[in-house]
Amino acid sequence: MTDFAQVAAQLEGQAIELPSWAFGNSGTRFKVFGSPGTARTVEEKIADAATVHRFTGLAPSVALHIPWDLVDDYVALRRYAEDQGVRLGTINSNTFQDDDYKLGALTHTDAKIRQKAIDHHFECIDVMDATGSRDLKIWLAEGSNYPGQADLRGRQDRLHESLSTIYDRLGEDQRLVLEYKFFEPAFYHTDVPDWGTSYVQVAALGDRAVVCLDTGHHAPGTNIEFIVMQLLRLGKLGSFDFNSRFYADDDLIVGAADPFQLFRILFEVIRGGGYGPANPDGHSDVAFMLDQCHNIEAKIPGQIRSVLNVQEMTARALLVDRDALTAAQEAGDVLAANELFMDAFSTDVRADLAAWREERGLPANPMRAYAESGHQQQIEADRIGGTQAGWN
Ligand code: LRH
Ligand code: MN
Ligand code: MN
Hints:
With 392 residues, this protein is of the alpha/beta class. The chain has 14 helices and ten strands.
C-alpha cells in the first residue's frame, strides 16, 4: 500500500468552502434552538469562517446566500473578508422564501414572476462582480405536490429559457452551477430532481454551466460515487455541497453518518481528476463546499470537525494504490481489488495528519486547540442575540 509520506504533498492546498449559513442559528420546522455566541451579522459569519480557517488551514473561502447575507456594499464586504484572511466564494441565489414563488419561480407560468426570479439572479451576478466570486449556485425549490397540478414538460421548457437568460448575463470567468434535489419542499415532482436533469439543463447552456452535487439530495441507497464518476467523465461536475444524512436532507456533519461513503466519493473525485492537489498542474474545476447546519452542536467546532473529516478521508483515499488496484481489476481478482481498497479506508491517518499540521505551523489537533483557545467563551460573552439563518 501507498504510505502517508508519499501522499503528504497532495494534501497541500486542499480548500473547502464554508457556508455562511452554518454560522447562523438553524433548526428544523419544529424548532430553531438559539445558541450563545451565534453570529449576528454577515461580518460575524465571515469572522467565524476565518476562525475555522485559522485553526485548520483548510477553509480559505466562504459562500454567501442572497438575501440572507444582504449588505449595502459588497466591495467593502470583500475587503472585510480579506482582512480576516478569507475570500468570498460562491453566491447562492434564493427563490424559496417569497410568496410569489409558491407555484414556481424560473418555471412559473406567469412571465412576470419568472422575470422577478431572473432579476434576482441578475442581482446575484452583480454581487459576484463586486465580491470577485466565480460561481453562481442555483438550487430551485420548484415542483408540485399533486399529480395533474402542473405541466411537467412546460416547466422544463420554461426552466431552460430562464436559465439561458441568466447564463447569458454571466461574465467570461463566471459559472452557473445547478444543484439538484430529489424532493422537498415539493413532494410529488421536483423540476431539477436528479443529476440527469441538471446535466441536461446545463449541457444546453454551455461550457460554463455545470452541476452541483449535494450529498444529501439523493434517495437512500443511491450510489453517489457513480454519479461523481459520470459527471467527471462528462466534464460537468462543478461542485459539491458536502454534508451527511441518515434519512433525507439531514445536513449533518460530513463524514459523520457514513465515513465509508465519503471515502468512496473522494476516491472517485481523485481518480477522475476532480481533486486539484493530486493533478500534475494542481488544477481542478471542482469546488469542495460544505452545506450543513449545526442545529444542536456549537457551530465553529462543528465546521472544524467537518473540514477535518474531509481532509482525513481525502488522505485515506489518496492511499489507495491505484496501479495495484488496476492490476487486480484487470486480472479479475475480485477479492484482492476489494482488499486494496479497504486497506486504504481502514488506515488510521490521524497521527500522520497531526504531524503534517505541526510541520505547517497549524495546531496538531484543531478541535482541541479551539476548545482550549477560549474563543468560544469570548464570542458567547461578546455576542448577544444571534440571527437565524435559513435552513434546508
Ligand atoms: C437545498 C440546499 C441548497 C440551498 C441550501 C440552503 O436543500 O441544499 O443548497 O442553497 O440547502
Ligand atoms: Mn445544498
Ligand atoms: Mn439541501
